[in-house]
Design brief:
Elements: E1 3-6, H1 14-23, E2 28-32, H2 40-43, H3 46-56, E3 59-63, H4 75-102, E4 109-114, E5 120-122, E6 127-129, H5 130-133, H6 135-153, E7 158-163, H7 170-180, E8 185-190, H8 191-196, H9 202-207, E9 212-217, E10 219-221, E11 226-229, H10 238-247, E12 251-254, H11 259-271
Helix pairs in contact: 1-3, 3-4, 4-6, 6-7
Length: 275
């Protein structure tokens, strides 16, 4: 199995993350586009990124901005996010050589994305999600998005993986299922997020588990709701989840938030003879 790490806030530059990744015996870094240093104009400096990766013998995946909203009602906003995805796909193609050299060529190179819930309106007796109310317009945005992504990715071994967060809304499930009809899309199972919201996404994920291509692995608990814990510090049946990831030949990000928790997670894997 291929294990990697997220970009950590304690590390100020890419090289610090790469050195840590190498020292822990991990294979890749998931570059988080929420960080200012990993905005698209920075990622497009691929020569620097390739040089650092070659120095440490690692490769990269990409986590698209969590605010990504390709269905925003403001078309100027939508166009900006679509352009960000297009340019991110181009970056991934240029980084493919690293995957081939230091990773597993049987696993596609992943761009991970969240589903944006959109805004809601609070009424006296309930909350109304605008994407639920304007569902047809919402789905038209995803028809456009899927078509464009298929065009941008072309015949390259790049895929976009949709991650669960705090529970898929019903309108999101429809959009995700539409995306999954395309060979360019798959699922990410974030097992910590899943645990913290009472595993409400498990039936949907299990229904589509043949399209699981990526995992975010961290421990968590339901009460209190916590995630991003070091492996072994929560309530998740980690061996069961890792067995499924292995069966799906999925790449796994040890998605802790601190160096200390990442070290602890790597040691947990070693004690359990995984990786």
């Amino acid at each position: 199995m291929q294990f990697g790490m997220p970009t950590l806030i304690e590390n100020q530059i890419l090289e610090e993350n790469a050195a840590l990744c190498c020292s822990l015996g991990l294979q890749f870094i998931e570059l988080n586009m929420n960080f200012p240093e990993y905005q698209i104009d920075q990622l497009e400096q691929t020569e620097t990124m390739l040089k650092i990766a070659d120095q440490y013998g690692i490769y990269y995946t990409i986590h698209l901005d969590e605010n990504l909203n390709i269905a925003d009602f403001n078309l100027l906003v939508t166009k900006a996010y679509l352009e960000t995805v297009r340019r991110s796909v181009d970056v991934a193609k240029k980084l493919m050589r690293l995957r081939d050299q230091y990773g597993d060529c049987s696993q596609p190179l992943i761009l991970n994305m969240h589903m944006n819930h959109g805004i809601h309106i609070t009424l006296p007796d309930r909350k109304v999600q605008m994407y639920s109310r304007d569902f047809d317009a919402y789905m038209r945005s995803f028809v456009t998005f899927r078509s464009l992504c298929e065009e941008w990715i072309g015949d390259s071994d790049v895929m976009i993986a949709v991650e669960n967060t705090d529970g898929f809304r019903e309108y999101e499930k429809s959009a995700v299922e539409y995306l999954l009809e395309s060979p360019k899309f798959g699922l990410t199972w974030d097992i910590g997020h899943s645990k913290a919201v009472g595993e409400k996404d498990v039936p949907f994920i299990r229904k589509h588990q043949e399209q699981l291509i990526h995992f975010h692995i961290h421990d968590g608990s339901e009460s209190p709701a916590r995630n991003h814990l070091a492996l072994g510090d929560g309530e998740i049946n980690l061996m069961e989840r890792l067995k499924l990831a292995e069966g799906r030949n999925a790449r796994c990000v040890l998605e802790t938030k601190t160096i200390e928790a990442l070290n602890k997670s790597v040691n947990w894997l070693r004690r359990n003879h995984i990786g």
